[in-house]
Amino acid sequence: MQTTVNPTPAPNLSSGLRSFLYLTAAINGAAVLVVEILGAKMLAPYVGTSHFVWTAQISVTLLSLATGYYYGGRVVDRAQDLGRLYQAMLWAAVYLALTISMTERVSYWCMDFGAQLGGLDASIKIGSILASGFLFFVPLTLLAMTGPFLIRILTSTLSGVGGQAGRLSAISTLGSVLGAALIGYVLIPHFPNSRTMFLTAGCLAALSLIYFVSFSQRKSKAVQPLLLAIAAIGLGWYGVKKDSRTDYGRGMEIFRSNSNFGMLQVIQVKGSAELFYVNDYLTQNIYYTNSQQSGAMFTYMLHALARGYRSTLDSALCIGMGVGIVPSQLAREGVKVDVVEINEGVIPIAQKYFDLKPDQLNIHIGDGRHYLNRTTNRYDAVVLDAFLGDSSPSHLMTKEAFASMKHVLKPGGCIVLNCFGYFDRGRDYFVGSLEKTLQAVFKQVRIHDSGRGNVFMAASDQAEMNLTPPADLEYIHPDVRSDVQKTLVNIVSTDPQRGRVLTDDFNPVDFYDAVNRETFRRNMAKSMDPDRKNRM
Question: What percent of the chain has pLDDT over 90?
């Protein structure tokens, strides 16, 4: 004889409470995606943007969801008390608010701990997953309890389990889609990461308080939730204020904005005309407004190599504008300059603070590879100076990318690129690979090493590459003039046994160069710490 087994009856729910529970599923789904993406952005200034960081963040998110699903199911089977769910959401809000002020300290501690366990090579691999776990495992686990909890609460008969589970899963997933769209297209470009996390924690706290005030049968027990909500707001507000600091020791922030590619700042050295352009706490350029000169050696090197390796320079393509120092210098000399810049947010900053005149350039907003694949223009030189904080985008450093650059060059033209690299054994994979990749496309390759991390490479199909140095060095700022002179004559080669030809299909430099990038990023980020004696 067939028997029907019914679960324990769900509590009687009003239509208003049912709608509120569906809203809870949608908001929690959105919060999970916001925290997953925003978490990686908050970690980026301290641990980088390599695939290690995203692997860690995605892994921690999935592990949190698995744990939360399991734990939420166990809890609701013991007692169908919605108060427990909304208490969990409040604790998640408190924890997320705490991450705003703790991310930097936790990140560095985890990276140091990873280095102690396995040396520098393990620092970013172990440190990134530890940092992501410490900061986001607990709140994401608490939020993941929502799914099984609501399925059990909303289900009154066994026959309705499938439909209810499907309905809640769909609502939660649609909420995640909305969260992903909000964080990607609205919040990250227009709001500081700290405020976005504060807003997320605030929404969760507000949703929980609404339940306890409007739907809970035991309103007298709303005191503890209220205290937790106040704690979340207080911790979040403290984190936002801490993140909004403008004093960087001997420098003062005079501009800040978020963009699709990180936080952009302009910091002025107190009592001087010296400006720093900073992206996610990493200095990208230095500029003296009184003399309208760059204080960064790489700008002069890119200009001098493009001029020196191409005797006739009438047209140039600059992939990566920065604040426009190099393309503007070429334009003033009568060169027709096309610029491809992926971050449109930098243009008004360059105009206001770094004397950029956009009408002197042909500026295209977009990705360098996309522009190379569709342009019919031809150039005497291609200047590649695209950076994601601590490294060049890997898709611009492959055999196929260099072939596209070669295709847009006039006969005898050259490409010049700026990168960070080292030549000592064990740290030379990137520069070795880059030289091999350029040699696979061009007949001639020259490498100029600054000796301090900045490496410049030039390549051409000329029969001979002979550099004509600048006849007059007075246009170079005195602080970097000697460095430019030394780098122009310091031509080196890499170990032929190191590295490989990089292709779109196989480009493992993010893995092999991770230690170099993490070390550089950490040193640069720490130099922005106002509590350190040696700043900027």
Answer: 60
Q: In this predicted structure, what is the pLDDT of residue 522?
A: 65
Instruction: Give burial (CB, 10 Å; 0-12/13-18/19+) of 174.
Output: middle
AA letter at 7: P
Contact 356, 323 (CB under 8 A): yes
Q: Helices 193-214 and 15-47 meet at what angle, rounded to 10?
A: 160
**What pLDDT is stored for residue 217 in this prediction?**
74
360-389: average pLDDT: 92
With vertex at residue 494, the alpha carbon angle to CA 490 and CA 368, rounded to the nearest 5 degrees, is 85
Tokens of 391: 């490294």
- The residues near 302 (Cβ < 8 Å, ≥ 6 apart) are 326, 383, 385, 416, 418, 456
Token pair in block for residue 95: 């924890």
The SS3 assignment for 511 reads helix
Whether the Cβ atoms of residue 480 and residue 297 lie closer than 8 Å to each other: yes
pTM of the model: 0.83
Neighbours of 173 (CB within 10 A): 14
Answer with the residue of higher pLDDT: 130 or 247.
130
DSSP state of 296: -
